[in-house]
Specification:
Length: 404
Amino acid sequence: MQDSNDPLARYRDLFHLPDGVIYLDGNSLGAMVKTAPERIDHAVRQQWASDLITSWNKAGWWQLPVTLGAKIAPLIGAATDSVVVTDSTSINIYKALHAALALRPDRSVIVAEQTSFPTDLYMTEGAMADRPKLQRRLIGEAGQGVDAALDENVAVVLLSHVDYRSGALLDMAAITQKVHAAGAIMIWDLCHSAGVIPIELDAANVDFAVGCTYKYLNGGPGAPAFIYANQRHHNHIKQPLSGWWAHAEPFAFKPDFKATGGIRAFLCGTQPILSMTALDAALDAFEGIDMQAVRNKSKALTSLFVDLVLESCGKYGVELFSPKDAAQRGSQVSFTHPNGYAIMQALIARGVIGDFRQPNIIRFGFSPLYLSFEDVRNAAKTLFDILASGEWDRPEYSQGGAVT
């Protein structure tokens, strides 16, 4: 009944989904849109092979970072000219941190999360490397929350909208308001929320935001990330990677750097056109989409999975690690189990693909555009079968791989 009444059911046919697979890892790598191979093939055989360098103008290669940014903008509640696609999430976090610190030169503290995705923390270390007076204050250390971390010394706060391990969702508007009340700059990491949660960056008065495009936006492995800057900062963007694509006159080839204005100031070097072509195809699937409908289905899918798993698998040691209330989590459900890694490998062998995070977390990401409620029921049943039979205890399922 739920699938027959699903307003998003028609989107499923836009994606290539292998037979016999229930894909619950869209929070790590989204499924491929069916149009991607043809679009990449055209970019290779026509634009590159035949049109050669003329494609920078003829095929719009030069404008792709802003063209794609304009496609992402409505999905995250941003003005069209406030988003650019470029580089990786890690690099964009580094650039955003420097831009934020430049806006608060008299302050000396970066606030981040102890449990954030590690690259966020690594990038804060990098931003601090040549600034000996800077300090890092971690939320979660000794139970410290956002309120306790804020004072007159805080320059910038970097938080993940959705926690990559638990799927817990933070209140963007409320936290941003608190950060601004303390006089600091707010940066949001949207990697686990862009494409599945209605986001209102402009309305929440966010300063900067970054996110990847290969998860719920389905841009492909290693697809370039995006970065957002509120329009009020567009004439004040200072970032350390002063590459020629961010020059005010890139083809004047002047020896000294002069930054361009606006969001293009966050560009650096030549862009990966073939990757951007795949992302362009993926973003077409979101054209005109109702993000609230996406969110409604996401909550329904995850709630169904939580209820089914807790009812059937709780007696086998599975415990919910995500918030029970769907309104407080993203499009992800995580459970813990002492043998989580082996259980996930057994699931994958049975065609239910999720992933594992140390020390004992099994994660399931729900992409509303291509998942059905029947998928969810079958995935929960497969998990029950694996636990009830002890199938997960086979030796091959305990052998670790490079990627978990």
